[in-house]
Amino acid sequence: MTNPLLSRSPLPYELPQFAEIQASHYGEAVDRGLAEHLAEIRAIVENPEPASFKNTALALEQAGRLLERATASFFTLVSADASDAIQELERELSPRLSAHQDEIFLSRALFDRFAAIDTTDCDPESARLVEEYLKEFRQSGIQLDLPGQERLKAVNAELSRLGTEFGQQVKEAMKSAALILDNEDELAGLPADDVASAAEAARAAGHDGKFLLTLIQPTNQPAMAALKSRGVRRRLFEASVSRGSDGGNLDVLELARSTAALRAEKAALLGFANYAELVVEQQTAPHFAAVQTMLGRLAPAAVRNADAEAAELAEIAGHPLEAWDWAFYSARVRREKYAVDEQAIRPYFELDRVLRDGVFHAATSLYGITFHERDDLSGYHPDVRVWEVRNEDGSGLGLFLGDYYTRETKRGGAWMNSLVEQSALLGTKAVVINNLNISKPPAGEPTLLTLDELRTAFHEFGHALHGLLSSVTYPRFSGTSVPRDFVEYPSQVNEMWIMWPEVMANYARHHVTGEHLPQDVVDRLNASVQWGEGFATTEYLGAALLDLAWHVLDGTDIPEDVVAFEAKSLAAAGVAHALIPPRYRTGYFQHIFAGAGYAAGYYSYIWSEVLDAETVDWFSENGGMTRANGEKFRQELLSRGNSRDPLESFRALRRRDARLEPLLKRRGLG
Q1: Catalytic: which of 453, 460, 488, 566?
Q2: Interval 75-89: pLDDT, tens
Q3: Would you call 315 a catalytic residue per the annotation?
């Protein structure tokens, strides 16, 4: 069979031909892609003509298309549907791809050609392209001598291997830590559809007649808000926090220690005091001290709010509070103080209606784009759905894929990624995916979302919009290819439409009767919006500050006892709270140890939220959900990607720099 990856897909928008692709095709395509890319780079370097924008920068942007096509499809499966064969191939390919990246950005000949490009007559996006390439060469170690470069290559290869192993083991640990219960009585308090999902999950895992509570990636598990049995809540909590750190064969603490040591060594090689300073140099934050200052300003107020919440919960509980009690009694406060029963309103948040009449409706109202399900197109798994996205004039914009259900071959959490990135240079339009991990109900039953899952659906679609509405020339700048501490900004802005009156009225309807979510319930939801912010902010800051604690180490102080290190680091940062563990502990902190995506950058969620809170104010001040506002946000920000300084895009929208005060007000920290 011809390998479908070796040529551009004939499907609409170059959607990969997943039905035709076999696991073996990925290895072959990557092999050929690596060789082809190196040949293209060699041709650039050996070009006898003086370096110019066209024969160097433009040529490099056009190179590597086969490799990009193969890896985009392959790593989609790595995250969302990883068979044993795919995982084995990931272990083989990841270090090779890391070495390939080093071969490009440690090439003195290629760097010299870029340094020689005269950008005087270039348009701003083209001049920025050259600047960004030069910056990456320098951040990758082009200035090192040969022994330094060789050591850096070895470090990068080992970091790639460790990240792959960490990610694979965390996924297995999450699966093996799922809680098996023998009888339905132990599930008292859970809604009937969740009980049915637990029974279905147990059956699928070979435990017919039992009930399986699968875990999600963060520490806090949704079922703890409803389970009446303290014993079951405690077992579920302990299963969650002990993942990856229980001394068993899926323990990842040694992988974390090794990763931290190598990152510290890499930072030193590149002339930085620690890895955090290296990472922040690549972000929108002006320097590492600015990040520390902001987090330090937030932490005391967050903990004070959390302590006040804990006192209220203990009073309601009537007994000393434990960490596994928090979500249960917090839900009771919402019911008793604010008359909001999160379980009772789930029937108003049915997945299909949320997507069609909520997520898509908001995008249509703001940007004029429409969504048309394409049953003739398929993804990499039967659960994947495909929509064609069209502009207001009917022209094609791209494809949106939705993969909403959890399964054993999918990693935890929620994310967006691109299969094809928009680029005017390449003539490509965006093909993007949203992945969530919602428990799949039995056949024929509705998928009812929790408030958290509802928020996640809107959040991840904000990332999708960032990709779909991209309008740049060069693929390097497309969509979400922005600094890590800016990438969460558009997705957080998209959350504002969840409670926007005309949006909520459109999607929040009972899945059986069709009746609207009563207005008094909506009012009570709005009234309760700041309840739990002390917990949420403290939990988040715990993870962000733990991340930084790992990445300010200089390599001589890697802890032997990781659990003790966690406790010491949280206490030193002022966010140690007996009842609120960090959102992620080291043993399952996939964001920072399964690859370098958020390493020393988990702070980016709150950094981006500063911009988000400002933008919510901007929308509100200018009339809210209007096409004019949507078009302004699209043109000045969503379409720009990284084609100009992202903070310049923010200033073009807000007409000034961001201030911290709107965020403090939102989170009740002012």
Answers
A1: 460
A2: 999 999 999 999 999
A3: no
